[in-house]
Each structure stands twice: as C-alpha cells, then as structure tokens.
C-alpha cells in the first residue's frame, strides 16, 4: 500500500534503521518512544491490524510475539520485564493501520 507508512519503511521508500529483519517482519525503534525501550515488530505483509487477521496468518501472528520476546532479551529487558501491546482499531488507539506489536520496557509500566 503506497500510502502506508510501515509499508513504505518496509519497501525502503522511507529510510529506517531496523534493529532486526527477517523474511517475514522487521523491528524498528518507535519514532516517539514511550519507554527507554520502545520497539515495533512489524510484519512485511500489509495487514490492517489484529482485527483483520485471516486464516493463514496464525504463524505470522505467533512469530511477532516470539521475535518480540527475542528482542526483549537482546535489548536487556528480558529479566526486568516488559509490556507487549497491540492497539486494535479506533477505540483501541491504533493510529497506524498496519499491524504492529509494541514492545515497551526499561521502566515500570504497570498501570
Ligand atoms: P499505534 O497507536 O499502535 O498505531 O502506534 C503507532 C506507532 O507508530 C506510534 O507509537 C508512533 O510513534 C509510531 N510511528 C509512526 N510513524 C513512525 C515511523 N516513521 N517510524 C517509527 N515509528 C513510527
């Protein structure tokens, strides 16, 4: 999708410095971090959000979570703890309509 910011990061129209990338997803630093560690795990396939996951996306959805766990360890919050967040749709506070998993850590996040 040409007007999707994350698609444009993935297709390199918008420059970025991914902290991790494989064939299915990439991980970037959030441009407006809410915690000392704030990463976004973004599938390369354009999916609007959790609400539009379809049959066949199960493995990809699981991979987002597994890679987030690996990134938490890589960025030093695996032991201290972290929060994984999917914002879903308007009432869920989702702003970018391309599926992404927030990884937040490095400070107390309990609410
Ligand atoms: P959400 O509310 O779940 O849709 O969150 C979207 C997130 O994407 C926000 O935390 C933004 O700060 C972040 N974001 C938007 N544009 C960019 C960008 N170009 N690079 C990195 N993060 C971005």
What does this protein look like?
The protein is α+β, with helices and mostly antiparallel strands. The protein has a single domain (about 5-105), classed as 2-Layer Sandwich (HIT family, subunit A), CATH 3.30.428.10. The protein has 2 helices and 5 strands, in the order H-E-E-E-H-E-E. The chain has helices at about 5-10, 60-75, and strands spanning about 20, 25-30, 35-45, 80-85, 100-105. A hairpin with a 3-residue loop joins strand 1 (about 20) and strand 2. The longest helix is centred in the middle third of the chain and has 17 residues, at about 60-75. The N and C termini lie far apart (about 35 Å). The model has no long low-confidence stretch (mean pLDDT about 95). It binds adenosine monophosphate. Adenosine monophosphate (AMP) binds near residues 5, 28, 30, 93 and 95.
Task: Pick out its properties.
111 residues, alpha+beta, HIT family, subunit A, 5-stranded antiparallel sheet, 5 strands, binds adenosine monophosphate
Question: What topology emerges from the helices and strands here?
Answer:
Layout: H1 5-10, E1 20-21, E2 25-29, E3 37-43, H2 58-74, E4 82-85, E5 101-105
Antiparallel strand pairs: 1-2, 2-3, 3-5, 4-5
The protein binds adenosine monophosphate.
């Amino acid at each position: 999708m040409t007007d999707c910011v994350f698609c444009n990061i993935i297709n390199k129209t918008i420059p970025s410095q991914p902290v991790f990338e494989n064939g299915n997803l990439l991980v970037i630093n959030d441009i407006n971090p809410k915690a000392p560690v704030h990463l976004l795990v973004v599938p390369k396939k354009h999916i609007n959000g959790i609400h539009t996951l379809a049959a066949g996306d199960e493995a990809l959805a699981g991979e987002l979570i597994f890679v987030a766990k690996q990134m938490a360890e890589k960025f030093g919050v695996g032991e201290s703890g972290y929060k994984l967040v999917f914002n879903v749709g308007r009432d869920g506070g989702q702003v970018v309509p391309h599926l992404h998993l927030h990884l937040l850590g490095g400070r107390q996040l309990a609410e």
